[in-house]
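Q: what does this look like with pyridoxal-5'-phosphate bound?
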Amino acid sequence: MSREIRKCIESLQPYNAGKPIEELEREMGIKNIIKMASNENPLGPSPKAVEAIKMTAGEMNYYPDGSGFYLRQKLAEIHKVEPDEIMVGNGSDEIVGLITQMIIEPGDEVIISELAFVRYEMAVQFMGGKSIVVPAKDRYAHDLPAMKKSITDKTKIIFICNPNNPTGTMISQKEMDEFMEGISDDILIVFDEAYYEFVTSPEYAQSMVYFKDKRNVMILRTFSKIYGLAGLRIGYAITDKEWVSNLNRVRPPFNVNRIAQAAALASLDDKEHVEKSHQMNTQGKEYIYQQLKEMGISYTETQGNFILIDTGKDGREVYQKLLEQGVIVRPMGMYKLPQHIRVTIGTMEENIRFIDSFKKLYNS
Ligand SMILES: Cc1ncc(COP(=O)(O)O)c(C=O)c1O
């Protein structure tokens, strides 16, 4: 019996999410494993979101509001745009996939930076498109002039991840303005800003200016990171009404569940939780920087809630040895950085535990 699949997905690797923590604890015979691998918020969701989740639980017999009416209304107020300029997705990850489904014909080109979030390339490949991966500048950052030079008449989309995962690097307003100048409005520029709320640099490029200028752009944000709702899967896009209406053609009718919508709405009311998460992240970042500096270990300065570290050793082995001490980080082999790991900034207690475990690898 044949089990044929589309040629363009034959080389795609399924996402390896790893085993649940409880199972790892059981297998390895250790307790209190901490996960610093997926850039989640270690403080958890806002208590207001938890309350909203409880309140919504009794309504699960009803389908969710397929249009995300109230959430789009609230987001529109916050961002000073119209509700029709917002589309809500099952995580911003879903929206990345929907963008390529909406636009890419086989052979179309999409420009991506080397060392940018892996999902763009996968989404392009899934549609039979061609990713033009532009080498990173200064080892880790988007090289915007080189990305601009890579534009051809086949280019349909350019993905810009700012701050970038997994490197934590950022693009300044000046760099972005220079990049945006003269780019044809036939090309959609997608700004993936999953870590927007963690940024501390005043030079960070605000992409909303291009949207207000009516450029062909789409801004992606998520509730998975600072809002602590990764498990619920909810993110959104801000873009022009025509793109929203076309995204609505390709998205599943009830893509965002009822609980996620209620929790996201409630989270937006909890500025204190966002502020606390931001502060904790900034403090944690300084602590880890300081400790790594003292150890003479090189790292990349981050504008996100994670730090890319060049361990000077085999990153997979470092990952394994940290795991044995109950600390899960992300090895970076899939990004072709065999010596690196990416660690999510945790609570101070978690950061200390990570550093203590990490130091042990260099003392033996
Ligand atoms: C840069 C970037 N974009 C998008 C996502 C996907 O986020 P979501 O949970 O909203 O699908 C992630 C998740 O890690 C990310 O790092």
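The CA atoms of residues 73 and 178 lie 33 Å apart. The radius of gyration is 21 Å.
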